[in-house]
Amino acid sequence: MMLADYGQQLKENLVTFEQWGKGDIKASCVFGQLPKFEDGDLVLYQSNAMLRHLGRKHGAYGKNDCEASLIDMMNDSVEDLRLKYIKMIYQEYETGKEAFIKDLANQLKPFETILAKNKSGFLVGDQISFADYNLFDLLLNFKVLSSTCLDSFPALKSFVDKTAARPKIKALLECDDFKKMPINGNGKQ
Length: 189
Known about the structure:
This protein has ten helices and two strands. By secondary structure, the protein is mainly alpha-helical. It has a two-stranded antiparallel ribbon with strand order 1-2.
């Protein structure tokens, strides 16, 4: 999302479970996991390191150290929620989906409060940050899981609508390749 919004091309190489299972790709990864991101000679393996790198590179890491620290906090909070989602999707889908959806309002409330308080429409400051892109991506997943999950959250709904309307993000979301891409590797959503 972030790369698309900044007009950057992304060459994505999807790895199948079969390819991963052979072990060659896994052995080439520093921590034995994907994703892998290359930017010139720089190679990164941790998703949040990638986000922070792109945030610094594209001016989406706040205007000063205080904003950068708040953006880190927001992103870490998004990741805490993403980890709960991932656990449900990959480990507890059959037994935990209903409970996850039922508790989602409690999990989203802090983000609603933050966005409602910050009149800019962003989590921190007056410009989009890498944490906003991360939250947007996660909220899109939640909307697939439960199409009504944002109905009680006007600030979050506005945030999603405004972010999705950014011209380059809108083009990405409408692209056939993007629509075909699975949300989760196990096909559950």
